[in-house]
Fold each of these.
Amino acid sequence: MKERIGYGAWVVGVAQFFVVHGIVESAWARPAYSWARNNISDLGNVHCGLRTWPEARYICSPEHGLMNGSFIALGVLLVVGLVLTRGAGGTGGVGEADGFSGAGGVGGIGGGVPWLGGRVAALARMLLVSGGVGFVLIGLAPTDVHKGLHVVGAALIMGTGNAGLVLAGFGLADRVPRPLRRATGLLGVVALLAFGLFLSGHYLGLGMGGMERVAAYPLLLWVTALGLWGVVLRAGRTRAAVAEVRAGGDRVGPGSAGG
């Protein structure tokens, strides 16, 4: 059960982030907020004014408090999801392709733990947790309030967080669909490359904000995909298993106990 709560935390965290992003973006003062021209965290800047780092642009976000709260909520829910889906010792792998960990329920009905055991999976989770901490930091420290701490938060998201995504491609259990496992590492590699291009000022026509999103959003895409897999497919298989158990009881019949 706790694994499903963890999966749900990921889905809710990312969903609320993009909903709030849209609300705060719509309240942006002129000139209009641009996904290509503006950083994601420009929405959380407390003061209005011209900014010159890393690119010149005018920033004025009336609903910055809402955005910073969303950053913090996203980070907390990412960490909660990682803690709740790690399982007891990160068990999982060959022989558990049905997706159930065998813990918490009759006949092994429970939320599937997505991780293999071992150091690779443990390190992947640790690095991914750092990405969640990064979101909390950028929410607590807007760029125009505490630039140094904000930069640390961004580095945790796009640096160590994405490195964790690469390792997660090798640390996910066999019960996770193969396409998702393969996409995990690929997303991490793309995000790390984009982070390098962002830092070097090579935006490849996407703009500063566009390249930053290529570096930051793969992590959110991954937790959403894995979260939906855990919530929707695990719930569906649990219902099927419960129905099978009930059907078996019906076949026995009420009079069979008396011989």
Amino acid sequence: MQRGILRTWKDDRGFGFIESSVGKRRIFLHITAIRESSYRPQVGDVIYFHLERDEQGRLRASNAWFETDRPKPPIQSPVVSKKAPKYQSSFSPAPALLSILPMWGAFDFMFRTRNAFPALAYIALGILTFLLYREDKNRAVSKAWRIPEAQLHLSELFGGWIGALVAQQVFRHKTRKTSYQLVFCSIVALHSIFWFDWLFLGRNLAKSFM
């Protein structure tokens, strides 16, 4: 058993690095190597761990626990619950209200230009983004490797933001992280402004892209 201090931690990706008290080495720590605990790692935490090497011979921590936790009997490997996570969803009219203008604009675009791409993109990417949110929520609950936020935002930008908005309500996911919500709200505003211009302001934005 070794002792160290958590020097870096990326909570959204579930990993960080420990500075060992022996030799001041940087040791990789993945969230799955931490014994079952409700405590979320913080930079500066004192951590106890076993040292092992991965298939490439790199040092990594295993069977780790934090000084803030009560010590638990040693276990051979982390146990990940196989039970399906329970979601506490809440009904909100926001998805329906915010999607009215873009969907109206997308279908108006289809009827005027005979191009169904925007409407189909909203539907297809909305479903895809909803499924990505569900998968990311499952990974968060099971402390597995997370889906990068950039990938979620890219899917939202190309039309999946309606599905993301529904998923946020259903899974209660990504609703409290301010930095994430700022980017997400900017994407929603961008789509809404474009379609408002298309429907009511002479399609100036659309003309600049065509």
Amino acid sequence: MEGRRGIDKLIDERLNGDYDEEQADLVLRVALLCVRTDKDERPAMSTVVGFLLATSRRTTSLRRVPRR
């Protein structure tokens, strides 16, 4: 990917660029794991759910950190 510009091509344009870039990157990486050609290399859905929950918790907790 070529930074934010590359991610923007994959994100719903209706968001108008208003999204967490780190979260989008992590979700896209999980998506790439899910579309591997060899089914044995794809993660189980429970693993995918775990990745997504961890991503959600991580970015939610980062938003709670007070800004100076």
Amino acid sequence: MRRKTDNGFTIIEVLMFLAVSSALAVALLAGTGLAIQRQQYKDALYSFSGFLSDQYSSVINVMNDRPNDRPCPVASDAIDTNRGQSDCVIVGRYIETADDEGRQFTSYPLYALSDGIAWQYGLSLDEGNRYEASWKVKTRLSTSPGANMAILMLRDPETGRLMIRTSDRKYSPEEMTGFATSVDNQGQAEICVYDSNWFTQTRQSVFLSGKAGSADAVTVANATGACGDE
């Protein structure tokens, strides 16, 4: 008498199938999570770069839109008159961190006023505009472990030369002249864009050129030095 055979799977085969399927599902989910993180990092990186580029464009295409009834925010003994009749002009943008992690920034118009001998600089704190980095990434200067950062983008009112200055500390309105005319804080600056909990293939940074035309003043490239270690 022929014995009837069962063509089904054994318990061991079923368990092995479930184990392999689970491993594949976990790997797929992990890969998807990494892909999402990398895209979020890229979005945040280029959003921050775009913010700085927009600020620089405001310097290139500056408009003196100070209301007629608003006094010039530059401390000077020069006589101030109405907009269009005054030497008080907008010549740039001042940007500083607004929190202790480099996620929020405030930007202000930078004013300049000539007293007949030299140019003085200042700003009004009630004219600030706020920006927040996407996906809660952090930023800092590559030369500083802290998040404090100040960026000054200006067109020299005397020569028309475009300049960018950076510092690892923030400046008050009364200190704008010193920041704008200092021989320090010049040259290329690297801003780290990072989040320690994210895994990305290659860290990238935003680079600011101290003396640059509109095309290469704000660029994105692979991180170097301390930024690459984040």
